Amino acid sequence: MRVRIGPYRKNRAVKVEIEPHDTWNMDVTLAYIIHPMLVQLKETKHGAPMIDEGDVPLGMGMSEEAKARYEEIGEADGKFFDRWDWVLGEMIWAFEQYLTDLDKWGMEDEYYSRMSNGFRLFGKYYEALWD
After folding, report:
1. Could you tell me the CA-to-CA distances from 91 to 105, 120, 129 in Å, in that order?
2. Which among 23, 81, 116, 117 would be 20 to 30 A from 90, CA to CA?
3. pLDDT of residue 103
């Protein structure tokens, strides 16, 4: 695989060459790209999306009062960015495990469930992966 992507602008130069071996284990190939991009995004982000309460641990969700303020005037509560950090952290952890500890995948249910949840969050919040 060869990828050359120029700076973001109207006429952005993009050249991607895919070789047959790149799709043999496409999941792993993509994980090598996605993981460092997620790490960088977490370090440099300037915003955050609205995170569904069911996607974060208990105690991180918004109160009903905070939800009403957010819907009414767009005011974020004190945990707004913490929720996005937590979700990004779970995505990063999942891709890191996928690349470093492939032998554990089917052996521990809790481990596999957490990894699967990180991938689920990646899909769910895919459109929020911007800086």
Report:
1. 16, 9, 11
2. 23
3. 63
Query: Where exactly are the structural domains of the chain?
Result: 24-128
pLDDT at 82 over 80: yes
Helices (H) and strands (E) in the chain, counts: 4, 2
pLDDT for 104 equals: 61
CA–CA gap between residue 97 and residue 59 (Å, rounded): 26
Torsion angle of alpha carbons 118, 120, 124, 127, nearest 10°? 60
Burial 83-121, CB ≥16 within 10 A → b, else e? bbebbbebbbbbbbbbeeeeeeeeeeeeeeeebebbbeb
pTM tops 0.85, yes or no: yes
Residue-wise pLDDT tens digits, 17-28: 999 988 998 999
